[in-house]
Amino acid sequence: MDKVINCFTKKPDAVARLVCFPWAGGGSIHYARWGRVFNDSIEVYSVRLPGRETRAKEKFFQNMQQIVDEIVEALLPALKEKPFAFFGHSFGAMTSFAVADSLKRLHGLEPVHLFLSGASAPYSEMRIGAPKRSELTDEEFLQWLSSIGGTPPELLANPEVLKLFLPALKADLHVVENYRCDRPTRPLLSCAVTCFDGKQDVPHDLQAWKEMSSGDFTVRMLDGDHFYLKDSANEKVLIDFITKHLETSEMDYL
């Protein structure tokens, strides 16, 4: 499991686990650090995908099913131990949903809460009609990347860093842009769902996520652009909100 999951702070007595899924091109460090910020009741697992960090020499995954299969195999024993929740931003929102769907269908397990950020639901018309960024030229891609914020300008201006960074980002975007999911005719899950988004980000079809689960549905908008969650004040809001909802959940768990 250590290859796929980064856990900075082991908390064997935690009442729940929060599994965090990276944004496109992202590694595991940002969320793994959350393990030191959350209190002792919540243990944080951060997903590490191929092609980055300690897995830099591994080939990128080509489709969502490969990602789901690896994460489910790595996490399944741990997820049977105690209640768990998922957090995913942008590409991570899609992968967390795909993993939750697979866990429910194949293993009868589901999170007690899904925290989804910065993304339209996979079956929404807004998302399906969006342009495919992974097909842009490098110049067009960098212009788009600069426009959404969150990437330091000095990184965008450094060719050597970009050579390392862009392949992972484009590979993840290729996966998510080719991921298809039919609009559910009935809820796939029964857990609570909370959607977060930056007020200055491009609009996302957050309401479409409501169809995914029969549980409570909430939307929280925070100041900022696509990477609003990197702001320290917003990060505190997220962590406080997640802590409150995990600690006060009834957490019925079979």
From TrEMBL:
The keyword rRNA-binding does not apply. Keywords: Fatty acid biosynthesis, Fatty acid metabolism, Hydrolase, Lipid biosynthesis, Lipid metabolism. It catalyses: (9Z)-octadecenoyl-[ACP] + H2O = (9Z)-octadecenoate + holo-[ACP] + H(+). It is an enzyme of class 3 (hydrolase). One of its GO terms (biological process) is medium-chain fatty acid biosynthetic process. Belongs to the thioesterase family. This is S-acyl fatty acid synthase thioesterase, medium chain. It comes from the Eukaryota. Its EC number is 3.1.2.14. One of its GO terms (molecular function) is fatty acyl-[ACP] hydrolase activity. Residues 19-242 form the Thioesterase TesA-like domain. The keyword Cell division does not apply.
